[in-house]
Specification:
- The complex is a heterodimer of chains A (123) and B (368).
- Helix content of chain A is 19%, strand content 35%.
- By secondary structure, chain A is an alpha+beta fold.
- Chain A is globular and about 35 Å long.
- Chain B has a six-stranded mixed β-sheet, sandwiched between helices. In chain B, strands 14-17-16-15-18-19 form a six-stranded antiparallel barrel. Chain B has a five-stranded antiparallel β-sheet with strand order 5-6-7-4-8.
- In chain B, a hairpin with a 2-residue loop joins strand 10 and strand 11 (183-188).
- In chain B, helix 2 (33-42) crosses helix 7 (228-237).
- The longest helix of chain B has 13 residues, at 207-219.
Chain lengths: 123, 368
C-alpha cells in the first residue's frame, strides 16, 4: 500500500498536510480499508476550538465506527461537507477529495513521516 | 494462529481482506462490502463457508437421538429434507443453532457455527449415550460453498455439477446429491442471506476446482465473490439471528422469537423441563429502525423516551438495501410492540428508534 511522501501521519492513522498555519486532516488509506465502505461521516463545526487528541468526529462503515481525533490544537476553519454527502469518497480518495477538516493551529503538529508510518502499518 | 481453510490461496489471489473468525482466517471482503451485499440482492454472490462445522450422525437410532438432543422433531424429516434446529442446554439456553439435513434414514448431516464446533460436538456426544448412534466431526472432510441471489439457480444449472434429480425438483430446505468431476457433492437449497440460493458441500480436496468453476460460470451472470462482512448485513436485513448476538447460553428460544423451533410436546428432550417454566418477564428480541445514517451497534443501551433503560442492541448497521439504520435488540416485553417509540444511546447522543417487526427485508418470492 503506497503512503504519500509529502504528508505527516499519526498513530491514529490520520494524515496531516501543512500549509502555513493550517493543517488539512484526513484518514489514511490503511484506515479506510480497515473500516470498509464508509457510509457516515460526522465532522466538527466550522469555528469549533479543538484540543490535540480530542475526539472531534466519526467515520462509520457498515461494520464499525472509527473516531476522528484532532491531531493538532486550534480552530476548525473548514469541514469537508462533500464527504458528509458522499462518505465513500473517504475510501476512493482518502488523501485527496476525502479530506475531512482544516484546522488553524498556533503550535505546529508533530507526526511520523511516510517511512515511519509505512513501518507502523507493517508494509 | 488462525487455521487456514482449503480455499485460502484462491481468496488471496482474488485480493481478499482477511479476518479471524472463530480461529479461521476468513475473507472479510474482496473489495467493497456494499457492492458485495448488493450483488447478492440483485444478481448473485459466492461465499466460502468452509469454517462452518459439519457433524455427521449415523446409526439406526439417529432420528430418535436427534429428537432427544435437539429442540424440534427431526424424526419428522423425509429423506433429503432439512430443518433449522436448536441445541439447548438443560436450563433452556442455546448451545448453538443448526441446520440438520437428513441424507438417509440412518444418516444426518448437521451444520453448526464455527465458534460452537467443540461445544456442539461435546453436547451431542454426551447425549448419544444409550442410543444406537455415532456422532462424528466431519468438518475437515467438507468444504462449504454458498451461491446466493436471484441468479443462483441459473449459475448452478450452467456449472459442471451433475444433479441427477434435477435442480427444478430441489425445493427450499431440501438437499440433493450430485457429482462434480469425480467428487460426490451435496447441494442444499439453504442460506443465510434472505435470498434464494444454494449451499454446496464438497470434499475439501475438490473445493478449489468447484470454486473456480462456479466463479467462471457466475461471472457471466453478474456473480461476484463475497466476504463475511456482507454476510452479516444480509442476514441482519433478513432478521436472522447470529449466535453470540441474538442467541446464547442465557437466552431462551422464545425470547429470540424462536419458540416455533421448539416442539414442547415431545416426550423428552434436553431443555424441556426448563422451557416448560416459560420465559415471561424476560426481554424479547425486536427489530428497530431509525432515520438518518447513524446505526445503533451491538451493546448500545435502549431507552424509553423518558430515558429509562429497557434493553440492549445486539446487532445493527446502516442497511445497504434500505438506506436507513436497522438493528436488533432485546427489550423489556412492555416495549416490544411494533411501532413502539424508543431511543438508543449512540455514543452519548440519543437516536429515536421505532420497533419494527422482523424481518426488515423480504425478497419477492418467485420460486417454489
Amino acid at each position: 500500500m503506497s503512503v504519500p511522501e509529502n504528508l505527516l501521519y499519526t498513530k491514529d492513522h490520520e494524515w496531516i498536510s501543512l500549509e502555513g498555519d493550517v493543517a488539512t486532516v484526513g484518514i489514511t488509506q490503511y484506515a479506510a480499508d480497515a473500516l470498509g465502505d464508509v457510509v457516515f461521516v460526522a465532522l466538527p463545526a466550522v469555528g469549533d476550538t479543538v484540543s490535540m487528541g480530542a475526539i472531534v468526529g466519526e467515520v462509520e462503515s457498515t461494520k464499525s465506527v472509527g473516531e476522528i481525533f484532532a491531531p493538532v490544537a486550534g480552530e476548525v476553519m473548514e469541514a469537508n461537507d462533500s464527504v458528509v454527502d458522499a462518505p465513500d469518497t473517504v475510501n476512493s480518495d482518502p488523501y485527496g477529495a476525502g479530506w475531512l477538516m482544516k484546522v488553524r493551529f498556533t503550535t505546529a503538529p508533530e507526526g511520523m513521516d511516510a517511512a515511519a508510518y509505512q513501518a507502523l502499518i507493517g508494509d | 494462529m488462525s487455521q487456514q481453510i482449503p480455499l485460502h490461496a484462491a481468496h488471496e489471489r482474488a485480493g481478499a481482506s482477511f479476518t479471524d473468525f472463530a480461529g479461521f482466517d476468513m475473507p472479510l471482503r474482496y473489495d467493497s462490502d456494499l457492492v458485495e451485499h448488493k450483488a447478492v440482492r440483485t444478481t448473485a454472490g459466492m461465499f466460502d463457508l468452509s469454517h462452518m462445522a459439519e457433524i455427521t450422525v449415523t446409526g439406526s437410532q439417529a432420528a430418535a437421538f436427534l429428537d432427544y438432543a435437539l429442540s424440534n422433531r427431526l424424526s419428522a424429516l423425509e429423506d433429503h429434507q432439512a430443518k433449522y434446529s436448536l441445541l439447548l442446554t438443560e436450563s433452556g439456553g442455546v448451545v448453538d443453532d443448526l441446520i440438520v439435513y437428513r441424507l438417509g434414514e440412518t444418516e444426518f448431516l448437521i451444520v453448526a457455527n464455527a465458534a460452537n464446533r467443540q461445544p456442539a460436538l461435546e453436547a451431542l456426544k454426551a447425549r448419544a449415550a444409550g442410543f444406537e448412534v455415532a456422532v462424528t466431526d466431519s468438518s475437515e472432510q467438507w468444504a462449504l460453498i454458498a451461491v446466493q441471489g436471484p441468479q443462483a439457480k441459473t449459475i448452478l444449472e450452467h456449472s459442471g455439477i451433475e444433479i441427477p434429480a434435477g435442480l427444478d425438483e430441489l425445493r427450499y430446505y431440501r438437499i440433493t446429491p450430485g457429482k462434480f468431476h469425480t467428487d460426490t457433492v451435496w447441494i442444499a437449497r439453504t442460506g443465510y442471506t434472505g435470498e434464494d440460493g444454494y449451499e454446496i458441500f464438497i470434499p475439501s480436496h475438490g473445493a478449489e476446482a468447484l470454486w473456480n468453476e462456479l466463479e467462471a460460470t457466475g461471472a457471466g451472470h453478474g456473480m461476484i465473490l463475497c466476504g463475511l462482512a456482507c454476510r452479516d448485513t444480509l442476514r441482519l436485513e433478513a432478521g436472522m439471528p447470529l449466535y453470540g448476538h441474538e442467541l446464547g447460553l442465557d437466552i431462551a428460544p422464545a425470547q429470540a422469537g424462536l419458540g416455533r423451533v421448539v416442539v414442547a410436546e415431545k416426550e423428552r428432550f434436553v431443555g424441556k423441563e426448563a422451557l416448560a417454566l416459560g420465559s415471561e418477564g424476560k426481554r424479547v428480541l425486536v427489530g428497530l429502525v431509525a432515520e438518518g445514517k447513524r446505526a445503533p451497534r451491538a451493546g448500545y443501551a435502549v431507552l424509553t423516551s423518558a430515558g429509562a433503560l429497557v434493553g440492549e442492541v445486539t446487532s445493527g448497521a446502516l442497511s445497504p438495501t434500505l438506506g436507513y439504520p436497522i438493528a436488533m435488540a432485546f427489550v423489556e416485553a412492555d416495549y416490544a410492540a411494533a411501532e413502539s417509540e424508543l431511543m438508543v444511546d449512540v455514543r452519548g447522543s440519543h437516536l429515536r428508534v421505532t420497533v419494527h417487526q422482523l424481518p426488515f427485508y423480504q425478497r419477492k418470492k418467485a420460486v417454489s
